[in-house]
Amino acid sequence: MRWITVFCGSRNGHDPRYAEAAAVFGELVGRRGWGLVYGGGKVGLMGILAEAALVAGAPVVGVIPRTLLEAEVGHGGLTELVVVETMHERKAEMARRADAFATLPGGIGTLDETFEILTWFQLGIHGKPMGLLNTGGYFDPLLGFLDRAVEQGFLGATRDRLWVEADVPELLDRLT
């Protein structure tokens, strides 16, 4: 079984395309026979992603810090819900279980998780594929920053290993 760790928002965002993309992503993870690892919440894009994956037959593992269990309404219907003490433990556990990483739209927490995984790649801690689902151009400003960091000599090959697609099937294909 191939496991994909997904970082995404605990809110839906204003554009309905984000929720639609999360649902498609979860469904296709299940259809492909993969397992999903995610933040463990039942709300926002996290909840939509997990529900779609479960309905499609995927095993779904949530990893959630005890302090967020109530705030993000920990999902009680998962294959496994891992409760950890800190965000550092959450990220480490999600990374340990991953064969690949994907980021869907989200806020500061989503970016924190994504940048930690990118940093770990840059430091040689992992060599797993990483991708952004750029729904509706959501990540365009972030990609502009990363490209600027490359231009200015602060970032190298790590940027080339972050695959960016606007289409869910294309991103999943790139991550295999």
Give a verbal description of the structure.
The chain has 176 residues and is α/β, with parallel strands linked by helices. Helix content is 44%, strand content 18%. It contains 7 helices and 7 strands. Strand 1 (3-7), helix 1 (16-31) and strand 2 (35-38) form a beta-alpha-beta unit. It is globular and about 45 Å long. The protein starts with a strand and ends with a helix. The model has no long low-confidence stretch (mean pLDDT 95).
Helix content: 40-55%
- Percent strand: 15-25%
Shape: globular
Distance between the ends? 12 Å
The overall strand count is: 7
* Radius of gyration over C-alpha positions, nearest whole angstrom: 15 Å
* Secondary-structure content class: alpha/beta
Question: Outline of this structure?
Answer:
By secondary structure, the protein is of the alpha/beta class. It has helices at 16-31, 44-55, 87-97, 108-122, 140-151, 157-160, 168-174, and strands spanning 3-7, 35-38, 60-65, 80-84, 100-103, 130-133, 162-165.
Topology (SSEs and partners):
Layout: E1 3-7, H1 16-31, E2 35-38, H2 44-55, E3 60-65, E4 80-84, H3 87-97, E5 100-103, H4 108-122, E6 130-133, H5 140-151, H6 157-160, E7 162-165, H7 168-174
Parallel strand pairs: 1-2, 1-5, 2-3, 3-4, 5-6, 6-7
Helix pairs in contact: 1-2
